Amino acid sequence: MSGRTFAARLVAWQKRHGRHDLPWQRSRDAYTIWVSEIMLQQTQVTTVIPYYERFLRRFPTVRALARAPLEDVLTLWSGLGYYSRARNLHQAARVIVDTHGGRIPDVLEMVEALPGIGRSTAAAICVFAYGSRHAILDGNVKRVLARYRGVRGYPGDARVHQQLWRHAESLLPARHIVNYTQGLMDLGAGVCARNHPQCEQCPVCADCVAHVKGLTGKLPGRKPRRALPQRSTIMLLLQNAGEILLERRAPQGIWGGLWSLPEISNAREARRVCRERYGVTAIEVKKLPPVAHGFTHFKLTIEPICVRVKKSAAQAPGTVWLALADAVSAALPAPVRKIMLSL
Ligand code: ADE
């Protein structure tokens, strides 16, 4: 393992391989840096650049922004999304003019107190504008640190988040804070990508826990899946002389427009529904094993009931009797086909 610290390697790497020509790197003006950090909160660098340039042409100073009607700010933001960022930026400009004499404060807590600025954004502004020594922890940096320190768990989890902040603080160098902070961002945006990280190009891979243990694909941990709501339904397989009854589903809702089986909500209704809704008389009723099906938002358990029937009245509209072999090749939901194939 290299004897140099994480920060020393990252700083050296940033100087050689990092980004140095981004528009907001041209100046240390706190206002322009603040605008860039807000735009970069939820938007990629390449998308931000033209918006950033246009925004600063129209509002070159915090006073110009504070004076402008909100409408004009929103117009320039149009297309970037997350418009609360624009509203907060405008509101914060007015606070800066009214209570800070038109200067972005250089105290972390005061920057953080402005509308729309969290701890990491406040830190980035203070680092890039004033060279102050603060830790950042945006989405990309969380990934870099979770991998480097082998922090398991989902970073959205409060405990994991706190742990990552502690690592972010403990790895901070005494000097070169600007290159260091930019280096973390550059590493996170490129080499330490979520998918297919290029570890062989990483300056800190020698002691990166995820790299050494082969865990880069597992870290950071994904958002835990919440238990899906359970729903259940009963489906009737009405059989007569080798044929089965299919019913067309309503165009809306799950499986809209597909062919399916009649559904009931209570097994005791089976005989009555056969008679009243489908014009058949049940001769033999037999429960089949349930079939589970997963949707993105819920789990469905289907309890099939097989009913041998005798036709006794007019066929219900929207239904068709098909030989089992033809029925399974109709446009059916997958679990319904599975039930039919088990017959
Ligand atoms: N993402 C957030 N802040 C950034 C910056 N200053 N440079 C590049 N990407 C960033």
Explain how this protein is built:
With 343 residues, the protein is an alpha+beta fold. The chain folds into two domains: 3-212, Endonuclease III, domain 1 (Orthogonal Bundle), CATH 1.10.340; 230-341, Nucleoside Triphosphate Pyrophosphohydrolase. 42% of the residues lie in helices and 15% in strands. It is built from 15 helices and eight strands. Strands 1, 2, 3, 4, 5, 6, 7 and 8 form an eight-stranded mixed beta sheet that branches. Helix 1 (6-17) packs across helix 11, helix 9 (139-149) crosses helix 10 and helix 9 crosses helix 11. The longest helix has 16 residues, at 84-99. The chain is elongated and about 85 Å long. The mean pLDDT is 96. The structure holds adenine. Adenine is lined by residues 22, 24, 36-37, 40, 45, 124, 138, 185.
Give a brief rundown of this model:
Helix content is about 40%, strand content about 15%. The protein has about 350 residues and is α+β, with helices and mostly antiparallel strands.
Number of helices: 15
CATH architecture of the largest domain: Orthogonal Bundle
In round numbers, the mean pLDDT is: 96
Say what oligomer this is. single chain
Kindly state the percentage of residues in helix: 40-55%
CATH class of the largest domain: Mainly Alpha
Q: Please provide the ordered H/E string of secondary-structure elements.
A: HHHHHHHHHHHHEEEEHEEEEHH
Number of domains: 2
Strand fraction band? Answer: 5-15%
The global form is elongated
Ligands bound, unique? adenine
Alpha-carbon distance between the termini?
Answer: 63 Å
List how many beta strands DSSP finds.
Answer: 8
What is the CATH fold-level name of the largest domain? Endonuclease III, domain 1
CATH superfamily of the largest domain: Hypothetical protein, domain 2
Biggest β-sheet: count, sense, barrel? 8 strands, mixed
